[in-house]
Write a structure and sequence with these properties.
Number of helices: 20
Helix content: 25-40%
Strand content: 15-25%
Distance between the termini: 65 Å
Bound molecules: 2-(butylsulfanyl)adenosine
Number of strands: 18
Strand order of the largest sheet: 2-11-10-3-9
Structural class: alpha+beta
Largest sheet: 5 strands, mixed
Radius of gyration: 27 Å
Length: 579
Amino acid sequence: MDAAKAAAEINRLSREIESHNRLYYDEAEPEISDAEYDALYRSLEELEAAHPELASPNSPTRRVGGTVLDAFEQRAHEVPMLSIDDVFSEAELGDFFGRLSRSLGEEKIPVTIEPKIDGVAVALHYRDGDLEYAVTRGDGSTGDLITENVRTIDRVPLRLPDGQGLPSWIEVRGEIFMRDEPFSRMNADREAQGLAVFKNPRNATAGALKLLDSAEVSKRPLDFIAHGLGRYEGPPLESVKEFRDLLKALGIPQNLPVWEAETYDSCLEAVRELDKSRHSLGYATDGAVIKVNSFADQSRLGATSRAPRWAAAFKYPPEQKETLLRNISVQIGRTGVLTPVAELDPVLVSGTTVSRATLHNQDEIDRKDVRIGDTVLIEKAGEIIPRVVSIVASKRPAGAEPFNLVEAVGGKCPSCGAEIVRPEGFVAWKCLDLSCPAQAANLVRQFVSRKALDIDGVGTIVAEKLVEREVISGPLDLFELELDSLAQLNLGTDESPRLLGSKNAGKIVETVARARQFPLNRWIFGLGIPQVGESAAKELARLHKTLPDLANSAILAELRKLKTGDRKEDNAILAPYKI
Ligand code: IVH
């Protein structure tokens, strides 16, 4: 077959296979048998093998992955990917509706109501129908370019069907997530193979998308549902409804069920109905998203720097479960704070198994009168972090004693043995020893976290062992790590050593090297300075050129003074970082 003919045939086969994919996934109505589908697929594979120069990265045969990247490129969002403002009660939903009415000068506001999917946000860019690239939300203005990984997701069309109405550019936004059943199956398989299991589908999704080897990603049961529009060049679109019609025509999976309403009452009714039906969707949802239907009205309402004014996320109150509090352990955080942690009989809450929950501090324990042996009520705040709501007084066993944190640790830091203190005006007990290994390890964990320098492979155990074995004494020492010695790091004990290995060590060294290019604000955030969150880090990065500038910064000292109300604040707090 000559090249021109082969190209035409490859194109025809690809389109036919994509169209069968759509029928299978979108309509659940396959028109051909699996064997016929396989035959088409094999013909395409053979042709591509004979004419490798003609194979497109968007060919359906590429879904198995195969590209291994060194690191993800960063890509700026042309339209920022904002967050959504939460509403936590029916009254707050009423306030939201009231604001819409007042701003638009109308009594009735057509809105849509749909599930809020608990996944990882992504933007898919299609140029002339071809998947051009895919980017994670990242910090809202820049994300990871994860095109290779996204191509492995069967439900993401690689090519949109030709025809009238095909936009020359469309950025479809949505969630990548895992359905409960394939998630559980994957975890069971992993357990059988002795691999670490994932805590919940969201973590598993985020973990899969961060893999640099797309062949590995293709084995994870990722799914995709669209819920929004970014950059768009195509036939005019006037509303959420019209956008949904376009998604349907293009075979892009959209977020269902969806309700339409015009008044607060009918909106509330939809929100209540969704709460009843959402548990049978087979994937995690944590709320209802309410959106103004008309795009013109959306523009009139505009957005704050954080979130659009035309949308709200109604958060459903979390599920609560009873379980037994077996013990209270004491953990030490990156600023030396001692935190009591409830050790629980494992219990399934909002889709994940909970066996630990923070009790925050002694005051909180006293206020709730939590005692070892109590039956406690657990919920997941924001459906993520488990917390003890209250004890069940009627189920308290005889002889349960009040818990005292200081007595429990004998007045000493459980990590380094230094005396613990309760600084004046603070609720928490602290270890003030700046060389305390637990603190150093926790500082390292903050430094490598996703929103900081996003360094792979330094989990709790690795961080602890790096510090314990004196390979590093603080986060900045990560930049001095050498591949060979790092590979020899013993994660086990002296009696039964377990080495980190060169593959894991390589990953760490590579992502550490990449981190050097990250902007100053990510470094500052990574230092985990008390009172310095993401936005303060951005401000500080604007006002300082380098980390050493920050170490001597009067602005930082001033900012922390303001936030803590403590006149004594100075930059001694930066000492453990050895900038
Ligand atoms: S619409 C900027 N619809 O929730 C507002 N977002 O908390 C437009 N999310 O980043 C977003 N389900 O990734 C929208 N049905 C849904 C959603 C949804 C989940 C995510 C989205 C967003 C985050 C904000």
